Amino acid sequence: MSSGNRRVFFSVSGVLGLCCALTAAVVTGLPLWIRGTALCRTGAELVNATGPELDKFLGELSYGLFTGQRLKQCGLGGRASRFYFFPELQSVVPTALHVTIIFFCGVVILFSSVATGFFFVNAFGRPYEMLQGPMGLYLWTFICCVSSGLVMTLFASEVKLYHLSDRISNFNEVHFVFQTHSESYDRCFWLFFLVFLLHGINFLLIRLAGVQFPFRETKESDGSGGADLMY
């Protein structure tokens, strides 16, 4: 492949990597990962509410990795409040798992930025060759792809297996019991899924640029062709 085409592929990969880094950084701090409704079961059972009457006892709930907000409805009007995972909810959420999710979000942000720099340097410069072979170009993209997949998997596990919405809804409640009525993944979760897909596309672009997969045997080439890539 000509150096011009390779420069184009690496430039596109660099732009995608930059978009991934910025997107991951923004969505990590936004409280738009889960959106749902919580039923005030105590109030509904007291008046035997059914059908449309249940709407008076349905509150709203939305949260992310650091903060969220809830609107509780118990038949007498809504009670809106904002909550924070740290330090308020440390006693009711699986803290170790939650911190692990935030850690992998940081890994995605960091290594997406690193991959972006490597792609652009390879596109427009002649970087110092640190390792033999094309391992590095795939390595950073692989780390980003796996980390973003782990973020989604671990967050989904925390929400479903640990009933995170129920725990948040019943936090600091003494007289009322709330039950999750509905919940769905909000835009930030799906944006992280987009980050995962974009890193997968980068894998394809690296291959289209003529870089062999690390596990494939390649013939040794003379000259300084390998020095055109930053590893």
TrEMBL record:
GO biological process, one term: sensory perception of sound
Membrane topology: Multi-pass membrane protein
Keyword field contains Transmembrane helix: yes
Localization in the cell: Membrane
Pfam families: Clarin-2
InterPro entries with a match to the protein in the record: Clarin (IPR026748)
Primary site of residence: membrane
Keyword line: Membrane, Transmembrane, Transmembrane helix
Residues passing through the membrane, by range: 101-125, 137-156, 189-209
Superkingdom of origin organism: Eukaryota
One GO cellular component term noted in the UniProt record for this chain: membrane
Family recorded in the similarity comment: Belongs to the clarin family.
Protein name per Swiss-Prot or TrEMBL: Clarin 1
Species, as recorded: Pleuronectes platessa (European plaice)
